[in-house]
């Protein structure tokens, strides 16, 4: 390994950021612009092979394109690496190459995916302690082809980090779009939406990093508006988008007090100002919204029972609404982007997998566990693919092949996922139990995995555990694990926003309500058991299985 690292270092200092190891391309992030992505450079790689030219991401793009045409099957380029290693920039370069060289004479009809990137970056990227412009969602970008010509693109997203909307660790920021909105929206519109400075919002000031050196939020807002107008969003839809973001910020400033009644703690809203502003911005009932953050509704055959929430429960209810508003807005924008980029009929495609990089942040929660689980999964798939290629080469050379024992990463995957006691299985089981807590989940993990080589209990009685990943140990804090894994909105909240007088709001919540009802119906058929909505972990695992099946072809 030391000789490989030395080779990479020497090449890097000569601005040679790409290196082949077999058919694998290693890319080292230069953190500066290099003049190696022009159309002139791209044409050098057209119809070339890996050995013909110097190592380059364009060569990988060309190889994927050539295979898609010769085999008639979709090809996928998998980009993996730690957070901040340049995965998203590599994905952009592949798309740039294909759309630059393989468009037909009527290329003006092809809508360029690069035009929507400002939307994805503003709504999907944020500053972390590892990366000032970190992608907080994974994506599969498909470049669709017909008779060898690019005819359109489509984007699928995986695991948007919803918790960032309501919490950021020290030195981190919320999603870029909030700061861009506050810096770039005209004064009159800011006043109409009751907007103030970023530092005045709890959802923005927790990380104490509202300003980001080298980022011009006001200029980026203008670029964002242009991109949103470019996908044909109307003035009303733009206003609704800003209203959702403004309402989220107001939600974060709702404070609660407590009082005791019948020996139970009850939450009360300290001031009605913010709840009224949220209701005005989103055109919903302030009274119903007030009830939604202070009470839980249980529907029986005869009545609706309102149960007061504690202050902690009220904060969770408030944050749940904020996260849902942002996630559903993000999904709606992605739907509009895909409608705008929609391909004509295609006969092949090149897919680019760009998922979150392996992470070890200041505070690691369920999102980081899912991200690192995904990286374990792709690392295992990558290792199996490389080993299969090596075995095939040995066979062709008529050399003896010694089978390789069970892979390290696969063992860690089993520890995380195998029923009944994989970490993620325990989490799903605990999530389905009414009386379960983060503490009971942690105790179950300690009990079943205390002696596992992949698991380390804390030396002190802390609410955390450590997993020995392929890239190193990561310690996870279990606070809110169960709450995050439930990943569902209460029916009364769906009802409130489904009745909004803003078309965008009512539309996105009616779609969410339809999905919720479908999940309840499917759950209700399961041996007469209580209907269960899909958990965050189970949905993410299914997405990874689908992605792996796609990669296998």
Automatic annotation (TrEMBL):
Q: Which SMART domains match?
A: MYSc
Q: Extract one GO molecular function annotation from the record.
A: actin binding
Entry binding sites for ATP: 81-88
This chain's protein is named MYO15 protein
Entry keyword annotation includes Transmembrane helix: no
Q: What is one Pfam family matched by this protein?
A: Myosin_head
* Domain of life from the UniProt record: Eukaryota
User: GO cellular component annotations, sorted alphabetically?
Assistant: myosin complex
Gene3D superfamilies from the entry?
A: 1.10.10.820, 1.20.58.530, Kinesin motor domain, Myosin VI head, motor domain, U50 subdomain
Member of which family? Answer: Belongs to the TRAFAC class myosin-kinesin ATPase superfamily. Myosin family.
Which keywords annotate this record?
Actin-binding, ATP-binding, Motor protein, Myosin, Nucleotide-binding
Gene coding for it: Myo15a
Q: Which SUPFAM superfamilies match?
A: P-loop containing nucleoside triphosphate hydrolases
Describe the location of the Myosin motor domain by residue ranges.
1-553
